[in-house]
Amino acid sequence: MQTVINQKSKKLLKKLKIDCHVKEDHSWINILRKGEQAPRHCHILKNEKSISWVLFLSDSDTNLNLESPHMFYEEETLKYNTYLRVLTRKGTIIFFPSWVFHFTDVHKEFDQRISIAGKFVLDIK
User: Fold this and answer.
1) Contact, 121 vs 46, CB < 8 A?
2) What kind and span of H or E run contains 8?
3) Cα separation of the two ends of the chain
4) Nearest Cα to 28, choosing from 7, 47, 54?
5) Where are the beta strands (DSSP E) in the chain?
6) Is-contact 58 109, C-beta < 8 A?
7) 49 with 124: CB under 8 angstroms?
8) pLDDT digits (tens, 9 = 90+) for 47-79
9) Distance CA 62, CA 81 (A)
10) pLDDT range class, residue 46, cuts 50, 70, 90
11) CA nearest 25: which of 36, 10, 35, 11?
């Protein structure tokens, strides 16, 4: 999976004419059981330039919540300092800046919510 993501990322960077490569990459598996949740956190360390991602391996009603520190439009309504709720659907992959705080609600389903997540630390010239 990591190889596919790396290949697609390199293609996009080349298309955008950005001189950048992945200096480090990390990945892990997340399993939420009934009653568990991922608390609010981010993945940034020491002013690094990095991109976080998550690939959902199962469908679930437990959404990923991304903190939105700026305004955005949703259904023609301007919203401030709120959360973007990402539906957890098998096969969906989400990329976001590592400084974005995120969390899940408490998982209420009997089946586990499974995902693979990771971070690319970038060297941008």
Assistant:
1) no
2) helix 2-15
3) 26
4) 54
5) 20-32, 49-56, 60-68, 72-74, 77-79, 82-88, 93-97, 102-104, 113-124
6) no
7) yes
8) 888 999 999 999 999 999 998 766 666 677 766
9) 21
10) confident
11) 10
